[in-house]
Amino acid sequence: MLSTILSELKPSGTRLVAVSKTKPTESIMALYEEGQRIFGENRVQEIVPKHDTLPKDIEWHFIGRLQINKVKYIAPFIRCIHSVESLRLLEEIEKQAGKNDRVIDCLLQFHICDEATKIGMTIEEADLLLQSAALQAMGHVRIAGIMGMATFTDDVVQIRQEFKNLKGIFERLKNRYFQDSSTFREISMGMSGDYQIAIEEGSTLVRIGTLLFGKR
Ligand SMILES: *Cc1c(COP(=O)(O)O)cnc(C)c1O
Fold first, then answer.
1. Is 209 in the pocket of ligand 1 (CB under 6 A)?
2. Can you list the domains of the chain with their CATH numbers?
3. Ligand 1 centroid to 140 CA: how many Å?
4. pLDDT tens across 53-75, in order?
């Protein structure tokens, strides 16, 4: 399965985040041995022990809701946090990254679907965050792009439209705030059920779990 997905990602240069949540370290090692290096998890209490025991050249991405008081546990090693949805959270990441003398890539998560349960910011909230003096003063977080989740539906027209909306948000923010910066470049969108649409709509990072590891 890995090689099939990788060949689909290749033409666009989209990278794969293998979402290993709930899966044992043996399953991660099996993919690692096939060459996969980026893994994604959504719970702090799960990613920390996995990081501790697995090879150190794994690039760990955090993809779930992140509580402010838990940032300190992942700050020593996390490469990218896909789920930044407030200035308060970003400030804590900045503080903890600073303590570890690191820079952490952060993606702003947008609410693009029609499910109220999924997290994410509005454009207005993102504008406030990106214009804030607090952000300008930060040296240990890098706003590397944006993330979003489409509605869980069979309606491919709707899914495609939601991905188009996310891409539109990316372009708008790029023009407004990051015109001269090459660090703002990631659009994290696409999961097992919709990653092919996401690639067509400009995804740079797909987050795939079930297709690689089986049902959870
Ligand atoms: C679980 C999860 C995924 C992977 O979902 P699959 O459908 O198993 O591929 C992707 N993104 C987020 C944010 C997740 O929580």
1. yes
2. 2-213 (3.20.20.10)
3. 27
4. 999 999 999 999 999 999 999 99
